[in-house]
Design brief:
By secondary structure, the chain is mostly helical. The chain is built from nine helices and no strands. It has helices at residues 11-19, 23-45, 48-63, 75-108, 116-135, 138-148, 154-161, 165-182, 184-187. α2 (23-45) packs antiparallel against α3 (48-63), α2 (23-45) packs across α4 and α6 packs across α8 (165-182). The longest helix has 34 residues, at 75-108. The radius of gyration is 22 Å and the shape is elongated. It starts with 10 loop residues before the first helix and ends with a helix. The relative contact order is 0.08.
Amino acid sequence: MSTAPLSSLTDNELYARLCNGDRQALGTIYDRHGGLVYALALKVLHRPSEAEDLTQEIFLLLWNKQKFDPQRGKLSSFLSMLTRSRAIDRLRSRKRSQTFIHRWGSVMTDRTLDTPFDSASLEERRATVRDALEQLPEKYRQILELAYYEGMSQSEIAKQLVLPLGTVKTRSRQGLLTLRKQLQTWMG
């Protein structure tokens, strides 16, 4: 390995060092390309906290030997493509969660009911959702209840429960996925 300062090395040389376990090479790559990755993530996601999370994820993927091939292009292009792809995946996941919550939120809202059957049907659906929520592990249920019954943001939940924001996001997602599985028969 060369004794030149890392900042003077090319991206390909830095990546080769990174593949050999040089953590400082990752730091130099991050210094060079972290702003690009964050800016692209923010442009797609429109949420600074999600853009920060995604930026960290991208560089962790690179550290874990994500398949960058210097023969196929520049590292900056690879990071941009990976960031865009992962950001779009997050948008899709967010949309699925919002659709699911909107759908079940409409079940739970009060509305004018035309017949006693409508009223009984709505009450049965509410009971089904309550039962499904009660079956969730406490760590998931607590976050979902604060978000959807109290209207709290994930940042507010993190502060109230004294948890890292990333933990709240993960538990919220896992809770929604579990709840979705439990309510699958109603979603037809």
